[in-house]
Write a structure and sequence with these properties.
12 strands; disordered C terminus; four-stranded parallel beta sheet; Rossmann fold; 10 helices; alpha/beta; single chain; six-stranded parallel beta sheet
């Protein structure tokens, strides 16, 4: 059987959501040829569940995942993809993000960040990132790597890798670092393929709708920082199929153009969560623990 999985009208994070779907298809149809049509074929390089990308064949089964989450915003993103593909939410299935990257050895004393530039309601200001990185450097003494592309922000004093690394190299850096602090971006989803603790501000999403599964556990190693507004998670009740969510909250101050949710997430809250995540890593990802359980990948 030839199976086509289509995810073309999609950003990087949306395509990463496809990887639990192709893994389930491989378990269900072990002898089938599974092809993905996507604008991000690098997501599937080395993926054992996929036979190729953007290959034209005659297909026996076509699964269209374009706008799978945009039309099911009330669901967790992976659950939305499961529903679009299989008609259920993947109960009892492995929902882990799958991404093949060169695994580094022992974690080093560094932090990875991604000060992404995205929708205004999920982009933290430059001065917020400046305060957070200065605070973390002072409190930990760790080096900080800035990931992403050239459109993203790079705080002064951090190591600028924007636009210089492949997706696999960025995943490897995230894996090697003590924590990953990021906005709600494609790299936030990519980090789910590692064991590194993830610290992320949440404004238009809630943990229930956007955290990932690791080792079969929902939200394993995630440290969200929640906006203190009544309308947090507005993405869940945006119009069905919308590809952009603005700020139409009845709670916002009509005299202010800024998104109220952004301002409620303080730099000190991010620093506090980051320090908690570092301590969590020492407890749950110590070299001794990793050695005792073997290669968890």
């Amino acid at each position: 059987m030839n199976i086509l999985v289509r995810s073309v009208i999609a950003a990087l994070g949306d395509v990463l959501y496809v990887t639990p779907i192709t893994a389930r298809l491989r378990r269900k149809y072990p002898d089938s040829t599974i092809i993905v049509h996507t604008n991000y074929p690098n997501v599937f390089e080395g993926n054992p569940d996929v036979n190729g990308t953007n290959i034209g064949l005659t297909f026996d089964l076509i699964i269209d995942l374009d706008l799978a989450h945009a039309t099911r915003r009330h669901l967790n993103a992976v659950d939305a993809y499961m529903e679009a593909a299989f008609g259920d939410h993947g109960e009892g299935e492995d929902k882990s993000i799958i991404f093949d990257y060169p695994i580094t050895v022992n974690p080093t004393n560094c932090i990875a960040i991604h000060p992404n530039k995205s929708w205004a309601n999920r982009t933290m200001p430059n001065d917020w990132w400046d305060e957070v990185t200065i605070g973390l450097m002072l409190k930990t003494g760790y080096d900080i790597y800035t990931l992403g592309t050239n459109i993203d922000y790079c705080p002064e004093g951090t190591m600028d890798t924007r636009g210089k690394l492949t997706l696999k190299e960025q995943a490897a850096i995230i894996s090697a670092c003590q924590i990953f602090l990021c906005g709600a971006s494609g790299l936030f989803i990519l980090a789910a393929a590692t064991d590194t603790p993830v610290v992320v501000p949440m404004t238009i999403n809630t943990p229930e709708t956007c955290l990932m599964w690791r080792h079969g556990e929902f939200g394993w190693g995630y440290f969200p920082i929640l906006a203190d507004v009544p309308c947090i998670g507005c993405n869940s009740f945006a119009p069905k199929g919308a590809t952009f969510v603005g700020c139409e909250s009845p709670f916002k101050d009509p005299t202010k153009p800024d998104y109220a949710c952004i301002g409620t997430i303080k730099p000190e809250a991010a620093i506090e969560q980051a320090l908690k995540a570092i301590e969590w890593r020492k407890k749950y990802l110590s070299p001794e623990r990793l050695a005792s359980q073997g290669n968890i990948y």
